[in-house]
Automatic annotation (TrEMBL):
<dbReference type="GO" id="GO:0008198">
    <property type="term" value="F:ferrous iron binding"/>
</dbReference>
<feature type="domain" description="Fe2OG dioxygenase">
    <location>
        <begin position="109"/>
        <end position="211"/>
    </location>
</feature>
<keyword id="KW-0408">Iron</keyword>
<dbReference type="GO" id="GO:0031418">
    <property type="term" value="F:L-ascorbic acid binding"/>
</dbReference>
<dbReference type="GO" id="GO:0071456">
    <property type="term" value="P:cellular response to hypoxia"/>
</dbReference>
<dbReference type="Pfam" id="PF13640">
    <property type="entry name" value="2OG-FeII_Oxy_3"/>
</dbReference>
<keyword id="KW-0223">Dioxygenase</keyword>
<dbReference type="InterPro" id="IPR005123">
    <property type="entry name" value="Oxoglu/Fe-dep_dioxygenase_dom"/>
</dbReference>
<keyword id="KW-0847">Vitamin C</keyword>
<dbReference type="InterPro" id="IPR044862">
    <property type="entry name" value="Pro_4_hyd_alph_FE2OG_OXY"/>
</dbReference>
<dbReference type="GO" id="GO:0031543">
    <property type="term" value="F:peptidyl-proline dioxygenase activity"/>
</dbReference>
<dbReference type="InterPro" id="IPR051559">
    <property type="entry name" value="HIF_prolyl_hydroxylases"/>
</dbReference>
<keyword id="KW-0479">Metal-binding</keyword>
<keyword id="KW-0560">Oxidoreductase</keyword>
<protein>
    <submittedName>
        <fullName>2OG-Fe(II) oxygenase</fullName>
    </submittedName>
</protein>
<dbReference type="InterPro" id="IPR006620">
    <property type="entry name" value="Pro_4_hyd_alph"/>
</dbReference>
């Protein structure tokens, strides 16, 4: 069999560029985009594998706020999270893909995205995350939120939807069913959203593209 160059690059350029372009168009025209089952399967599977080998003790009760102001508040959020290590072999595909997306969006929309941080979240049955914004104007350097889901065989009547609201405490835009590989991307300061309780375990990956916020030579200080 004779292989040509394009066979070797099947995982990257043409297909991903059209996905990246759809994302860019969505962000440009409406500030958000929802793409069911859009994360390339290989990447979603590698995340699922990484999740499966993560030990329970890596997960801790999620907090709200940032830096020293972080507090646990079970009335606002009940999920447990585990931050991803970008040097972990099973995180490679995910961090490579998000780096390519960052570069694409910077070229296309001049967003000035600098870094990316990401965690797994585990919502047990009944867990929720009340309506919130991921970033407040002037207080955070989170620009763009990216969420994907690792739930195979999720049925629409199992709950656990992500509800997205229009900017400025607006109306509900849509409810997203957390099915495997669905991508949700939105401007972090603009779109309030909430996670509804489900009747089964719900796994998501949330990530944030951030501006460079280096202070006193400390590059991009911690979350
Ligand atoms: O899991 C989701 O659907 C979204 C989670 C979320 O809003 C967050 O972690 O800030
Ligand atoms: Fe959020």
């Amino acid at each position: 069999m004779i292989l040509n160059i394009s066979d070797y690059s099947a995982d990257t350029s043409p297909q991903d560029d059209s996905l990246f372009e759809r994302i860019a168009c969505g962000i440009e025209s409406q500030g958000y985009i929802i793409l069911p089952a859009a994360l390339p399967n290989q990447i979603a599977d590698s995340l699922l594998h990484y999740l499966s080998i993560l030990k329970e003790e890596r997960f801790h009760q999620a907090r709200i706020g940032r830096g020293l102001d972080q507090t646990k508040n079970p009335f606002i959020r009940r999920d447990k999270i585990a931050w991803m290590d970008d040097a972990h072999p099973n995180a490679n595909l995910w961090f490579d893909w998000t780096a390519q997306l960052k570069q694409y969006l910077n070229r296309r929309l001049f967003l000035g995205l600098f870094s990316f941080e990401s965690h797994f979240a585990q919502y047990n049955p009944g867990d929720f995350y009340k309506k919130h914004l991921d970033a407040f104007r002037g207080e955070s350097n989170r620009v763009l939120t990216l969420v994907t889901y690792l739930n195979k065989g999720w049925e629409p009547d199992q709950g656990g939807e992500l509800v997205l609201y229009a900017p400025d405490e607006g109306e509900e835009i849509t409810k997203v069913v957390p099915t495997f590989g669905t991508l949700v991307i939105f401007l972090s300061e603009e779109f309030p959203h909430e996670v509804l309780a489900a009747d089964r375990d719900r796994y998501s990956v949330a990530g944030w593209f951030r501006l460079n916020c280096s202070i006193n030579q400390q590059i991009d200080p911690p979350r």
